[in-house]
Design a protein that fits this description.
Blueprint: E1 27-30, E2 43-45, H1 56-71, E3 75-78, H2 86-98, E4 104-107, H3 112-121, E5 127-130, E6 140-145, H4 147-161, E7 166-173, H5 176-192, E8 197-204, H6 215-227, E9 232-236, H7 241-250, E10 254-259, E11 275-281, H8 283-295, E12 302-306, E13 313-315, H9 320-323, H10 326-341
Parallel strand pairs: 2-3, 2-4, 4-5, 5-6, 6-12, 7-8, 7-9, 9-10, 10-11
Antiparallel strand pairs: 1-3, 11-13
Helix pairs in contact: 1-8, 2-3, 4-5, 4-10, 6-7
């Protein structure tokens, strides 16, 4: 029987390894001088956009660094390649498992088939996948989140902050996962102020077309929404969200970040005053805790879900203009309490 569990704890950032497989992407390698064991530790394989997306992948990297720092073992992080197949992804994960890394985590739903295949080949290795709950295996942890709940709170923030009564949503790829962000956001907006109009837009139909990795596409979409009077834009688009934030800053409107606290991202420092808040999901915590469970000899498997109640989805408070707005904070806290209690049922599609 699969074990259903929840995760808790924190994360930070760094990497490792050198895979000489040209089909499997580039890697970074390092090992601690004070390894506590001879075993190799956590390895992650990035989703589209790779490390440096200021969002989803960077959060996973932060969890890897926390594990490396705490457990003193060798870690690995591996970049994706353009046009790769499921077989390429599986080969990447198998190579990591073969070298002794444990656990091995695929960052993103696109790794579903690869994780399933690799887990069958290496039953003694624990595998994890972020944002997919379809794999039922004794050695796989499905690390998923209630993104719609944090997005609902982002919708409350948008509705309370707009002056034009028009807000935007930019989704990276038109898929069910990103529909969760849109659904929660729109519900939060409408529950707060039914008069506020939401303009939704998706950048691409598939990840291969660059929906999660093209800041230029994000910037263009945001500029189009701003022309239609949107003065708050929420982007669930990975690296493409950087373009949304740039456009918001250039036009002196608000952007709402995603996944990580984008107000604190060094690469976005020039635009941070335009980042109202970020709808966060703690991928770092999920990745770190899977590594900790393996290190403790009790590997977590099954569905591991983070939500508002567990604190693994949330809104960031880094921007003082957001944090110091008492009326806005009260509205968000009220909505949060109602979601946690079940009084508000947030839509996921």
């Amino acid at each position: 029987m699969r074990r259903i569990s929840r995760i808790t704890v924190a994360g930070a950032a760094t990497a490792s390894l050198a895979l000489a497989l040209s089909a499997c992407g580039s890697t970074s390698t390092s090992s601690s001088s004070s390894e506590s064991k001879g075993d190799k530790g956590l390895a992650i394989a990035y989703d589209v956009g790779g490390k440096g997306d200021q969002s989803f992948n960077d959060a996973a990297y932060a969890g890897l660094e926390q594990a490396k720092k705490e457990f003193g073992y060798e870690t690995a992080d591996v970049e994706p390649t353009d046009g790769e197949t499921d077989a390429d992804k599986e080969q990447r994960l198998v190579s990591l498992a073969k070298q002794g890394y444990n656990p091995v985590v695929g960052v993103g739903y696109a790794y579903a088939a690869a994780v399933k295949g690799a887990a069958e080949k290496y039953p003694d290795t624990t595998f994890g996948i972020v944002d997919d709950a379809t794999i039922e295996a004794e050695n796989v942890a499905d690390l998923v989140f209630s993104e719609e709940q944090a997005s609902y709170l982002a919708g409350v923030a948008a509705a309370k902050s707009t002056k034009t009564k028009t807000v935007g949503f930019v989704g990276g790829v038109d898929i069910p996962l990103i529909h969760k962000f849109q659904a929660g956001y729109e519900q939060g907006v409408k529950d707060t102020d039914p008069k506020v109009k939401v303009i939704p837009q998706y950048l691409t139909q598939t990840a291969e077309e660059g929906g999660f990795s093209s800041p230029d596409k994000g910037k263009s979409a945001a500029e189009g929404q701003i022309e239609k009077k949107a003065d708050v834009i929420y982007a669930a688009a990975g690296l493409s969200g950087q373009g949304v934030i740039e456009a918001a800053a250039a036009n002196k409107v608000w952007a709402i970040g995603v996944d990580s606290d984008q107000y604190k991202q060094e690469a976005l420092a020039a635009y941070k005053d335009s980042i109202l808040t970020s709808a966060m999901k703690d991928v770092a915590k999920a990745v770190y805790n899977l590594a900790k469970s393996v290190e403790d000899g009790k590997p977590t498997t099954g569905i591991v879900k983070g939500d508002l109640k567990t604190g693994e989805v949330s809104l960031s408070n880094s921007n003082p203009k957001f944090a110091d707005d008492a009326e806005l904070q009260e509205a968000i806290e009220t909505a949060k309490e109602k979601i946690v209690s079940g009084e508000i049922k947030v839509k996921s599609s």
